[in-house]
Every structure is written in structure tokens, then in C-alpha cells.
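User: Can you help me understand a structure? I only have the sequence.
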Amino acid sequence: MNKIATLGPAGTFSELATKKYIQKTNKNIEIAFYPTITKIFKAIDEECELGIVPIENTLDGYVQLVLDLLAQANLQIIDELVIPIQFSFVGNSLDISDIKKVYAQFKTQGQCYNFLEQFNSIKVITTESNGESFEKFKRGIIGESAIIPQYILNTENTFPFTIENITDSKDNETRFIIFSKNAESYDVNKHYKTSIVIMDAVNNKPGVLSKILDEFSSRNINLTSIISRPTKRALGKYYFFIDLEGHYAIDKNISQAIEIISKNNIVKILGSFPLI
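Assistant: Let's start by predicting it. Here is the structure, written out as C-alpha cells:
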């Protein structure tokens, strides 16, 4: 049985996304939990055939660590999915004024910013996952609390103190990507998108990015996303991550544009995969 590396422990939104992916594809896959996103990337092709990570959130934008790891890894994005995200607050005290510490995953904090801003004396402890936040809360230490996925309240509702629906938006969603060492075969019945990263510009001159974008616009290629990340080698040096409609290996306009862009830039294809 194939394994899919998933951010754990059990109870994370990543686990929900993984189960949705398994149901959607009807694949016989075993979920393997890893404590960090970096360890998920390292597990591919060593312990697992697939990996799934959150890449973008409605409220908090892109997961910067995932972008950096994608630029470094030799992996292919093969699919994506979106799930709704809502959070609740639980505490090991009978009154919120007695709470001294709250555990919250690093991206969760940005999605519950307005809720956290009301407190002056609570110490926020950053965790790697919502599951870790919940596990630390379950130790039952008086005065400690956690921001946890809303759905956990449906199965465990014996918390001393609870505030439901603390997310900054009721329309909050997270997009997950599924990746592997190898690309999947093209399906003529599906519409595709392609993700690329412009790794470096040989001639870092004014107008370089504009010329790159012109190669796409002149061929009527729709770009759905563009974001920059520092190369971490020098100030003012950036990677450019671009999502565009179409399949790199099938659509000649895309392959031609990338071929021209590659003459003066290092371009990495992150994968072509079905549109949601």
C-alpha cells in the first residue's frame, strides 16, 4: 500500500484534506503523519510515495516555507484541493480571564488575528500543527488554552471553556497541494493548471519581470497567481512563483513561452495538475 505524508498528529486540517483526497481519487493509500512540513518533503521517495501540505489560505496568504521547499525539492505537484477552515478556542479554566497561555499553529494565528488581539496578558505559544496545539491543551494544565479546528467540537465537547467560530472570516479556506516524485498522466477530460518558479535571472536588469510576463500575455496565457520569495542569497534577489492555466507538456503556447523565458532565466516546472 502506498503512503501519503501528512502533517500530524491526527486531528489536523491536513488529515481532513488527505481523507478528502483519498475519497476523491479512490486510491488505496495509508496516511503517515509527520510533525513538520520539512519532514514531509524529506519523506517523499524514502518512506512515502505522496505528500500533502497546505500552500495558501484565504486570510493568511501563502505558506512561505512550502514555497521555499518547492523551489529546492525535485518533486512534481500532481493535484490540489480546497477545504473550509474554521477555528474554536478552548481553555482549561472556567473563565477566559483566568487564561494565561494559548497554543496556536503558526498559520492559525494569522487567521484568528482579531480574536487574539483582544488579549493583553495571554502568552501565545506557536506550534507546528493544530493537532499539536490540541495535544498540549489536553494535558489539562489550569490556565492553558488552545485554538483548535472547529470540527473537533463535534466529537469532543467536554472542555471547561469554549468559544466557537473565532476565525476572522466565515469564508476562510485553505488550498492544499499533493506532490510526488513523478508526474501523473494527462487526462484529456480535465482542465489543467501549471506551476513554475523562475529561479534566477542571468541579467538582473530593470524590466526583466515585465518581459517574462509579456511572453505569457502575448500568447493569451492566463496567469492565476504570481508571488515573489527572497532567494536568501542577497538583498533584492527573488524567486517568482507563477500559476497559469494549461498543461505545460500539452499546450504549445505554454511550452514555447517557457522555452523563451529559459534563455535568460532558470525556470523550474513544479507540475501540471487538474484545476479544482
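Now, to help you interpret it: The longest strand covers residues 192-201. Helices lie at 13-25, 37-43, 64-72, 108-111, 113-116, 130-137, 208-217, 252-261. Let me know which part you'd like to focus on.
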